Amino acid sequence: MGVDAYKKTRVQRNVGRKVTSTNLYLKLLIKLYKFLARRTDSQFNATVLRRLQSTRTARYPISVSRLVKQINTAKDKTRTLVVVGTVTDDARLLTVPKLNICALRFTETARKRILAAGGKTLTFDQLAQQNPTGTGTILLRGPKVREALKHFGRAAGLPGSHAKPYVSHTARRGKGAR
Predict the structure, then answer these.
(1) Mean pLDDT for all residues in the chain
(2) Can you give the residue ranges of the Large ribosomal subunit protein uL15/eL18 domain (predicted)?
C-alpha cells in the first residue's frame, strides 16, 4: 500500500512575491535592485531586493541607538549602515556620533539628530549610484519580535483572533479595560 501523493505536496510554490504597494518610489527601487541583482554577483543586492519586496510589517523599524551599537562593534567606523525600513529616534541616547545611514524612511527627529552630528542620510538610489555592489556597507534589520506585532491580524474580539486589543488603561485587577 502506498501513500496518495496530491499535487500540492509535489509542486513547489512560487517564491517571488508581487508587490501590491502603490508607492511609486518603492516600485522604482525594486526595479533598480532587480537590475543590480541580475547584473552584479553581489549577494547584497539580492538581499536588499528581497527585503524591499517584503510586506510593510516585515520591514522592521530600527532605532538610532541600535545603529550606534553596531557601528561601535564594527572594525571600520566609516562604513555605511543600510536599513530596509524606518530609522527611528531614541531619546535615551544623549549623543549621536557621526553616522552614514541609508534607509527607506527616517523619522523627523532621527534625521535631524544624524545630520546635526555631521552624518549622512542616504536614499537607496543614492546608495546604488555610490556603491552598486554594496562593499563597505553593513546591512541591518530591526528586531522581528516586537510588541506591535501582537496587535496585528484579525480584529481583537472576533472568532479566531489572537490580536491584543489597544486599551487606554487598565485599572485595579484589569477591570477598567473592559
Answers:
(1) 88
(2) 2-178
Between residues 144 and 83, which one has the greater pLDDT? Answer: 83
Task: Determine the Cα–Cα distance for residues 12 and 91; give it in Å rounded to an integer.
Answer: 47
Residue 173 pLDDT grade (very low, low, confident, very high; cuts 50, 70, 90): low
CA dist list (Å): 43 to 38, 118, 155: 10, 30, 39
- Please report, in angstroms and rounded to a whole number, the separation of the first and last CA atoms in the chain: 57
Q: Is the pLDDT of residue 164 over 80?
A: yes
Domains, the chain, in order of start with CATH, read: 56-144 (3.100.10.10)
- Picking from 86, 110, 85, the residue whose alpha carbon sits closest to that of residue 99 is 110
Task: Report the distance separating Cα 47 and Cα 134, nearest Å.
Answer: 11
- pTM, two decimals, is 0.78
- Distance (Å, rounded) from C-alpha 123 to C-alpha 103? 6
